[in-house]
Prior knowledge:
By secondary structure, the chain is mainly alpha-helical. It has five helices and no strands. Helix 1 packs antiparallel against helix 3 and helix 4 packs antiparallel against helix 5. It is flat.
Amino acid sequence: MELAKFATHYLKTNYSDQVESNPSLQHLILKWEQQSNGIDDESIGEDLKVIYQVLLQQQRHWLINKNSEDQSLDESIIRRQMHYLDIEEEKLRYI
């Protein structure tokens, strides 16, 4: 959480003009601000962990089905999303 606050402050202080004019930087700052205001990982509880694990599994199944149904989808997008799900599952093991 402190790292997110530091990063946000650094960007706003050192790159204020770019932050004002660049939607990608604004999105990044918003993401970090939300992260720093979010739920503490240790406080989510076992019930929420189980629900989140099931949700991640459902998202994985949806991606697999979507990929098999729609051959025009870019495979790299599917892989990137699967990688994100892998990371989220791994994070659950440590909280």
